[in-house]
Give the backbone structure.
Amino acid sequence: MRYSEDHKAKTHQRIIEEAALRFRRDGVGATGLQPLMKALGLTHGGFYAHFKSKDDLVETALQHAVQTLESSTAEVLHSAESPLPLFIQRYLSDLHRDNPGAGCPLPTMSAELGQRGEPSATTDAMVRNRLALIEQNLEGENAEDESVLMLSAMIGALLLSRSVKDPELSDRLLHTTRRLLIEKTQDQ
């Protein structure tokens, strides 16, 4: 059976997109190559025609997730009158909490990549971009430190809200952090 010239490129992109979703939703360790490829109707052996290793796929999928997220975030924030409160509101939303496969990879993947002893330059770049986005919307001489605190609180609140069983506690973690961070931006 002959495939079109762009078949391999399209298949490669499908693998990246599915992996990016699964790594954010389930984590890297819980995402096996065989189930990933099977979900796409492909064979496990066919994976190696596209990637050298799972680590290669992890980095590529992380880059894809970051690019997708950055472009959608930039589009929304550039059109907003008050970008930082909007960013906080969207990041700490029930929708983001309930759909990790479509959201920020930092809460799911950061700890896992660090535990594996393989931190990612892509993660470094994303963290720096998020800190800059927050810092540029803050005033005062402590803006740099405040951006670190705010990003850490946002990622931590999202991670914790996803990890507890009690829905009221989950909402409290998410909503309280969101409210306090937005109040902090208005105190400036």
